[in-house]
Prior knowledge:
Blueprint: E1 5-9, H1 16-32, E2 38-42, H2 48-54, E3 60-64, H3 81-86, E4 91-94, H4 97-102, H5 107-119, E5 123-128, H6 132-136, H7 140-152, H8 157-160, E6 164-167, H9 181-199, H10 201-206, E7 209-212, H11 217-224, E8 231-234, H12 241-248
Parallel strand pairs: 1-2, 1-8, 2-3, 3-4, 4-5, 5-6, 6-7, 7-8
Helix pairs in contact: 1-12, 5-7, 7-9, 11-12
The structure holds 1,3-dihydroxyacetonephosphate (13P).
Residues 9, 96, 168, 173-174, 212-215, 233-237 line the site of 1,3-dihydroxyacetonephosphate.
Amino acid sequence: MRQNIVAGNWKMNNTLEEGIKLAKEVSAILTANKPNCKVVLGAPFIHLTEVVKAVDSSLVGIAAQNCANKESGAYTGEISASMVKSTGATYVILGHSERRAYYGETNALLKEKTDLALANGLTPIFCIGEVLEEREANKHFEVVKNQIEEALFHLSADAFSKIVLAYEPVWAIGTGKTASPEQAQEIHAYIRKVVADKFGASVADNTSILYGGSCKASNAKELFANPDVDGGLIGGASLNAEDFYGIIAAF
Ligand code: 13P
């Protein structure tokens, strides 16, 4: 059966020193209180090597927040999937709405990044989600289907089974406005159906689909109680160990 996962996305926050401190705090809390789910920390590239060392790897996995769409070579400033892998990180967040909106990442580009992440043995946490205008126009189903279709439908069922999906409605990210448990369940069930129609019921059943967008300790329990919500991708509330643990403890 699919895994429940609570993943933090630190985004562009924390100096190296602060990141190591936070990773150690999270690991210590989880050593004392064994989690009932997989826990992942999404750290900036330059933190990866150190936060991998700072945590108990049996309790906490480490994710990069991006990787390049090229294998290697003359791409100044880029970080490849194999470089991420060499740090000891095992996950990579791909297609976050901030990457799509501010850095022009398209589904076609994300297809390339996904292939390279998988080829290097990383687990992609692949983000999808609609903006407010799309939700208001009742286009959210169509939008997420298109994102999955264009970036992931070329994969074999076996390759797709290595992917974690994260549904993050853009209107809920960093706004304090959370999708209601009913809204989350409705679209997560739809996403699982899209996966089932393409890759089969068993792959769909085994795919973890996380919710992201103003998820915090006070609303995590009711969100995670839904049958198709398998955890969360957490921004702001992952920047403090106690707050983050409050969400982990919802499982
Ligand atoms: P917030 O939890 O800060 O809304 O961010 C969600 C997010 O974008 C995680 O990737």
